[in-house]
TrEMBL record:
It comes from the Bacteria. Residues 111-131 are annotated as: Disordered. This is Carboxypeptidase regulatory-like domain-containing protein. It comes from Crenobacter cavernae.
Amino acid sequence: MNTKRAAACAALLLATGGCVSRHWTAPEADGVVYDQRTGRPLPGVEVYRQLGRYQQEGVGSTGLDGRFLIQPERSWKLMMQRTDPGYFGSYVFRKDGYVSVTIPYGVVTGGATSSRPPGMGTQRIELKPER
């Protein structure tokens, strides 16, 4: 983008009350995944962040003790004045031989622009064996 075009875009943005800011778009989550049948911690469960219907990204997996920790996500967003940002998605827990579990989340209003990352708290996830 050339300098004149960038200046024109910046002037338009300021004139219409928009701003660019860094927002939390996904919360932190931690917990333990268990085998629903045995009640034992389940290692090697893949954890994905899903945004929309088709977009997924791997964010980690459970350790030998079944524990997981998902870091919050933050990104730069263009916002117009008088709008409250809201971000919605889900965390998906998958392991071969088990039925997947999806946990939805939302980061809305003040949580998206807070200086502290939003959190879901400690989760207890149970995966049901397929058979």
